[in-house]
Amino acid sequence: MRIIKDTTPLADGFRMPGEFEPHEGCIMIFPERSDSWQYGGYAARKAFVEIAGAIAESEKVTVCASAKQYDNARALLPEAIRVVEMSNNDAWARDYCPTFVTNDKGVIRGIDWGFNAWGGLEDGLYFPWDKDNAMARKLCDLMDKDVYDHRDFILEGGSIHVDGEGTCLVTEACLLSKGRNPQLSREQIEQQLREYLNVSTIIWLPCGIYQDETNEHVDNICAFTAPGEVVLAWTDNQEDVQYEMSLACLRVLEQARDAKGRKLKVHKLPLPEPVCITKEECKGLDLCWDEPTRVPGERLAASYVNFYIANKHIVMPGFGDPADEKAKNILQELFPTREIVQIYARDILIGGGNIHCITQQIPSERL
Amino acid sequence: MRIIKDTTPLADGFRMPGEFEPHEGCIMIFPERSDSWQYGGYAARKAFVEIAGAIAESEKVTVCASAKQYDNARALLPEAIRVVEMSNNDAWARDYCPTFVTNDKGVIRGIDWGFNAWGGLEDGLYFPWDKDNAMARKLCDLMDKDVYDHRDFILEGGSIHVDGEGTCLVTEACLLSKGRNPQLSREQIEQQLREYLNVSTIIWLPCGIYQDETNEHVDNICAFTAPGEVVLAWTDNQEDVQYEMSLACLRVLEQARDAKGRKLKVHKLPLPEPVCITKEECKGLDLCWDEPTRVPGERLAASYVNFYIANKHIVMPGFGDPADEKAKNILQELFPTREIVQIYARDILIGGGNIHCITQQIPSERL
């Protein structure tokens, strides 16, 4: 693994492909953090195993497990899934496993962004985050891929979505938050995205999903399904605080032109009825920083937009809500060549994210 | 990774290649065990880094480092060397990283032998050894190679040498020791070697190097340099207890025929003058099982036979002895296409082995 410090993907002719482009595989991390996940991670592990299995139908899955959880991960996951030992602070592969870029020769490189647990000492979610922050580089080493060292810039993979053709979606709530790169202006942050993702157009949504503790990552509210097309998490209930938030995003999307000059086709993806954590569920969580991670009745940031696009499948969350089926049907129409697998994901949602947050695709070397 | 339980390499048409056949790469483990290595492993790490660097001139080196040592390993080793996180009890890659076998299609599989720290509770060298014993399978998983599960049979990689053409060298002192497979007869042990290494002729040397605490592994006294040719650790000093031991081995080798019916050409490789650990060196070692690992004046199992055959280099130990040069010249004659790199290896010898013991080759997939 060569650590690249002096150039950027843009300068070297690399770009981040869209998630819907072909994958070599997918990276996940085995959950065990007892203040993130119920019952010492037991409940989440069951869901992660199901999700890993679903993705493995499409592509090679690598699951990183700590030394403590390695044997358990190896025993619970099917043989076709690779398990590697890797220290971690938690299980959000999207946010701190490498963002991969490719060039027109099919070479793959990683980007090692800085990670500070979604806001560092300002409003981050746990401390320390050193093991998470080390993972991108460790994975590039493991995969024998060169890696761009960009730890000076704080970014999580879930805070960006690209169409692979020069357009990037982000939220102001996240990228302009105080806990990430407060020394940089909006224009300077745009410049980082241009140089590292090789994009020319950045579409700034104002916000994400209500109560999304990542400072409202874009990947929970809006995602490209193809160049020129997005899904937007939506509610028709004007009483819901989310209504104004989604509406504000819709207005931006309707005005936007992508890097190719196209207007975006916006598909509304319904939200489930508000999902709130129960007293019983809160009991299953250990304390974080001597305080409860969640309080009973707290609304969780449930959204169907938080799906993973695998080569042959869409792996999406379900919440036991009537909208489950509706959202599934919409995605089926948008991804006609892929089978939709819906997995009951309440135990992941309790951790603070969903299926997209716990996966990171490796683009294919095949051209 | 598929775990193969029902067949054997012999049945599947796989064989263990000779070490002098082309390699894909080499596996090492970063040392840190403070009762094996001086100064918390500090001295050994310096030597390991030098050895890894020398081998990396020939082939891809992967170094496994514990979570604690990962950052240090990554910082000390050159970029071209891959570092992966992996728990371990100690750093003897030869003995418990996979033995690899190949077939005539260039497919590589691993063998996961049982490992019990050179004798288990009978006369093993440390306890526990669970992390070491898990490494072969973990590495096959990491490398995406299928693996033969043969943990029921205790064997270390350093206790066998093959010519790749059907012949295997072992010592009686080791393979018939009480701490390994006492329930198996010599014939039954031979049968295991036949089925897993795909050999037809097993040459049993009576013993190895005096005081070799592995129960006298063959790889410290005798090694194939080519089919039909071996080097034998030798002393002309009849007062030395090693003299009778090497002589007994020589007699067996002179009588032997290999699998192809050839008589073996035996090249004597001189031993250095006895190397004994000093009081000062013993002070640098932590206790093992509440007892000293070594006592001042203890003779160490120094031997030049403990070299590694890399694709373009022979990486061999030096002891600061007049025989260093002599041994180097002999190996240079025997390996005319390879450059001989001699590395001062006292700090590895103190740990109980040498360069061959801390390396494990991965045969090449190229045919």
Task: Write a concise keyword list for the protein shown above.
367 residues, alpha/beta, 12 helices, homodimer, four-stranded mixed beta sheet, 24% strand, L-arginine/glycine Amidinotransferase, Chain A
| Largest interface chains and counts | A-B, 19 and 20 residues
CATH architecture of chain A: 5-stranded Propeller
CATH-level-4 superfamily name of chain A: L-arginine/glycine Amidinotransferase, Chain A
- Trace the largest sheet of chain A across and list its strands: 1-7-6-5
Regions with little confidence, pLDDT below 50 for 5+ residues of chain A: none
From the spread of the alpha carbons, the general shape of chain A counts as globular
Please give the domain count of chain A.
Answer: 1
* Portion of residues within helices of chain A: 25-40%
Structural class of chain A: alpha/beta
In this structure, how is the largest beta sheet of chain A organized?
4 strands, mixed
- Radius of gyration of chain A, CA atoms, in whole angstroms: 19 Å
Average pLDDT figure of chain A: 97
How many β-strand stretches of chain A?
19
What fold name stands as the CATH topology of chain A?
L-arginine/glycine Amidinotransferase, Chain A
- Quote the distance from N terminus to C terminus of chain A: 22 Å
Oligomeric form of this entry?
A: homodimer
Q: How many alpha or pi helices of chain A?
A: 12
CATH C-level category of chain A: Alpha Beta
| Strand content range of chain A | 15-25%
